[in-house]
Structures are given as structure tokens and as C-alpha cells.
Amino acid sequence: MPTDSTERETEELTPGAQRILEVASELFYRRGIHAVGVDTIAAESGVTKRTLYNRFGSKDNLLRIYLETKDRRWRELVVDRLGSENGDPRARVLVPFTVLPEWLTESDRGCSFVNAFAELPERDHPGNRVIRAEKQWLRRFFHDRITEAGAEEGAASTLAVQLLALHEGAIVSNAIAEVPGTVRAVTEAATALVDAALA
Questions:
Q1: What is the tens place of the pLDDT at every residue in 140-196?
Q2: 32, 81, 105, 150: least CB-packed within 10 angstroms?
Q3: How many CB atoms lie within 10 A of CB 151?
Q4: What's the whole-model pTM score?
């Protein structure tokens, strides 16, 4: 999960810095990381490049904060919904699928993390660390909820990977293939896998 220091970092942003982050986030997601330069971000934010660098240090750091902010919002969405599913172990496993329609209303170009990963070949790039952590968190989320529901360790580990792949595939299919009913169909498949594991 994003660190406490990251949360403080974004919470302490000035209104101007917050505006820069919002503009950069939209540009990175809509146009791509490499296609968007600091000049463009500064101009569309209504600030100078010097102001941008004073607030964020570098484009890489701004990118990292963009990804961490997106990650935190996603995890909060999942965890908040999890709190309303206390009495149903199966529903708790499926929460990331349950909230997917809401999440996709603002993610029509696919997964922010996958898109960024395609543009960051350096494994040690700070943005890449955020991306890997998000996917690892989701896999652990599935694993832990499946285990809580009563599945054995081996089955839980396998099913967690299967659910992660289904979840990621739903986002890609929704954005690129534009298949009607993708999320519903994938959720039904995930439900069938969970039911089989818990039978």
C-alpha cells in the first residue's frame, strides 16, 4: 500500500501543486508518459516549469506521485466496499470485481498501471515499483480473502492468480476490445471459480 509518507506528501500539496498533479495525471493517462513533457504539464497547469520543479523535483517524481495517488484511491475503493460485506465470505473475495464498474467510469483507456508499465522498461524506476506493488497487493487481497473464506493454502494461491488475471483481463477487454458486458461476464467466471474452491 502507498506509504504513510506518500499520503502526507499528497495531503500537504499546495493548491497550485495539487493542480499540477491533477493536470499531469490526466495527461499521463490520456496521452502517455513519454508523449507529455514538463513544458506541456506546466503550461496546462498555468505555472512555470520552475514552479513545477520546485514542487515535485522531477517528472519522474511527479509520475510516481500520480501512480501512488491512483493506487491509494483504488485500494480505498476496495477496502471501503469490503467493510460492507462482513457477513458473506464469497462476496468479500469478489469485492474487486464488484467495484469494477464504478472504477471503469474514469478508466476508459484501460489500467493506469499497465499503461505506465508499458512505457517504463527500467525495472528500478520508482514508477515501476508502484506498479508492481499494486498488482502484488491485489493478488494478496484475493489470496487472503479466499483463505478467510476457508480455502486451503494451495487452492488459495492458485485461485488468487486466476482471479488477478481475470480482473486485469476485464479492464483490458473493456477498454480495447469494447466487448459489451465484459465486466459482468468476467465476474460470473470469477464467481464460478470461487464457488468451486469453497464447495
A1: 999 999 999 999 888 999 999 999 999 999 998 888 888 788 999 999 999 999 999
A2: 105
A3: 22
A4: 0.89
SS (H, E, C) the chain: CCCHHHHHHHHCCCHHHHHHHHHHHHHHHHHCCCCCCHHHHHHHHCCCHHHHHHHHCCHHHHHHHHHHHHHHHHHHHHHHHHCCCCCCHHHHHCHHHHCHHHHHCCCCCCCHHHHHHHHCCCCCCHHHHHHHHHHHHHHHHHHHHHHHCCCCHHHHHHHHHHHHHHHHHHHHHHHHHCCCCHHHHHHHHHHHHHHHHHC
Whole-number Å distance between alpha carbons of 66 and 51:
17
- Which pLDDT score is estimated for 24? 97
Locate cell 465470505: which residue?
A: 89
Cβ neighbourhood burial of 32 (10 Å; 0-12, 13-18, 19+): middle
| Per-residue pLDDT reduced to its tens digit, 16-56 | 899 999 999 999 999 999 999 999 999 999 999 999 999 99
CATH topology of domain 4-198: Tetracycline Repressor; domain 2 (1.10.357)
What are the residue ranges spanned by the domains of the chain? 4-198
Matching residue, cell 491533477? 22
